[in-house]
Amino acid sequence: MPTDRRPSTMASIVAMLIFGIFRRALGLVSISLLSRMLTATEVGTYAFTQTTGQTFAGLLRFGVDGGLHVMIARRMGDEAPAPDLGALIGGGVILCGAIATAGAGTMVLLAQPIATHIFGVSELAPYVIVAAVFFAGQFLSQAAYVGFAGMGRFVDYTYVATIVGIATVAATVLGAVLFGVQGAVWGFAGTTLAGVPVYVANLLRSLRRAEIRVRFCPQRDHLRQIFAIGLPFYAAGVFLTPAEYWSQGLVSRFGGLDDLADLRIVLTLMAVVQMIPQAISGPIISLFSEREGQKAGSGIASAFEHMRWLWIFALVSGAGLAAVWPLAVTVLFGADFPQAAAMGQLAIVAFIPTIVGTSLSAGILVGGRTLPLVFVGGAQAVVMSALAFALIGPLGLAGFFLAQAGAATCAVMLWLAVLGRQTRQLPLKPWMVPLALATVALCTVLALDAAIAEPAWVRLVAGLAGVPAFVAAIALGTLSAVERQTLHARARQGLARMTARCGKTGGV
Questions:
Q1: Predicted local confidence at residue 165, as pLDDT
Q2: Fewest Cβ atoms closer than 10 Å to its Cβ: which of 95, 196, 436, 442?
Q3: How many C-beta atoms lie closer than 10 Å to residue 501's C-beta?
Q4: Half-sphere exposure (CA, 13 Å, Cβ side) for 274?
């Protein structure tokens, strides 16, 4: 019987949240340093290589990661793991290795068509080969994560991932210093692949502690269950991934690699803001599932309340980010990316419906009916592709973010209709009216701000005056008196604890 104890759920959540913050910070540091060492075109080449590898990793996973995660977790008993767990893990290793090998080979064969026909730059073909190396490393690293996650060893995973992440950033920056963009792309791709043995060695150590022996004898029933669980979740997002990749190709075809560099910088900054809702999505889904298990329909209905708070978060954080965006781009990345400084406002417009939609998709997921997710994902991809085709040519990078905003808004509307049908409730709630008005007002201001060039200090001053008023209007219009009092009390308690801690520190 295994003698070690798995970390608690709360410890795992905290570990993954801290690691998520650290990982976003590493990504921000990496692209910030590269933007000062490379030209805009070279940053665009780096962005192309990274995006291509990530896109193929999303397309070719086929739900194997999700299916394995669920099946391993189900076989991790309190007393002892299931007897067939070793065979399941061994079969998963063979399956993931086969996908990584076949996927990398496919990318090498498609290198020239991808560079020429999607991005319109034939000189990018060699970088697709580098992206294939990055794809193999990322896919196999994700497979190792599934093993840690299935056993509940999130804390162990964060230790290893932190070391590999630091090494990857160091190799990327050192490669850029020594060999320019080629050194940068081979630095992050090679280190990602070289990190796989590190993950595997630590995973094997965790397996030994749990007294699990891996057996490389894949069973047909295991493979069937892996795909039966994972494919529906994979299908829900598989349509949007190629649509977004194709849209980025249009950005390159019409605006060149310089526009692609601006796009990467904008997406990197937006990823920092999106980290909070993404980090809490797992616990929220668990909470909804628990409620659904206690009373059918209650978990799905909770999605509406979660949507309200995420909507408020998106509006408040979007308004605050808009005030400092151009200054943040200049400080972090230099003055060579003017479009990134200007287009951030439209990226925030797309960010709002994207964040709001996560709560609704979580509600549908908890209900156990995945077919609506596939339908909405397909519709979102069609809208994204159509708008990108129509807008990126005449509007450039602005067209990309407008296409994102239109597709995300369409998805929110469809998810609301699906949730209303599943819960047999009216999907439109009274609190949606003031939030919708606030959204229209904020998006109008952001669109005007993107069209009008003004000094960064003018925007900062306007933001310092306008954002508090905007937040106060949202609080008065969407929160009840009890909710406002509760938030005020918690804010005072937090400030008091912080003041007391500072006082103790100063007295030492």
A1: 93
A2: 436
A3: 10
A4: 18
pLDDT value of residue 22: 85
- How far apart are alpha carbons 388 and 244 in whole angstroms? 9
- DSSP conformational letter for 123: G
- Considering only CA atoms, which of 391, 383, 409 is closest in space to residue 240? 383
Other residues' Cβ atoms within 10 Å of the Cβ of residue 20: 15
40: left (phi over 0), alpha (psi -120 to 50) or beta: alpha
Burial class (CB in 10 A: 0-12, 13-18, 19+), 454: exposed
Residue 24: the pLDDT is: 83
> Mean pLDDT in the chain?
82
Is the separation of the CB atoms in 330 and 388 below 8 Å?
no
- Spell out the SS3 assignment of 413-435: HHHHHHHHHHHCCCCCCCCHHHH
- DSSP state at residue 368: T
3-state helix, strand, coil in the chain (%, to 5): 85, 0, 15
Query: CB–CB of 36/248 below 8 Å?
Result: no
**What does the alpha-carbon distance between residue 24 and residue 275 come to, in Å, rounded to a whole number?**
8
Query: How high is the pLDDT of residue 302?
Result: 67
Q: How many CB atoms lie within 10 A of CB 290?
A: 12
Cβ burial, residue 362 (10 Å; 0-12/13-18/19+): buried
Report the pLDDT value the prediction gives residue 111, as an integer from 0 to 100. 94
Q: Quick check: 366 pLDDT over 60?
A: no
Report how far apart, in Å, the C-alpha atoms of 376 and of each of 112, 328, 370, 399, 412 are: 32, 35, 10, 22, 9
- Burial code (b: 16+ CB inside 10 Å, e: under 16) for 397-429 equals bbbbbbbbbbbbbbbbbbbbebbeebbeeebee
Structure tokens at 155: 């804390």
| C-beta separation of 165 from 141 below 8 A | no
pLDDT band at 136 (very low <50, low <70, confident <90, very high): very high
Please name the amino acid found at residue 448: L
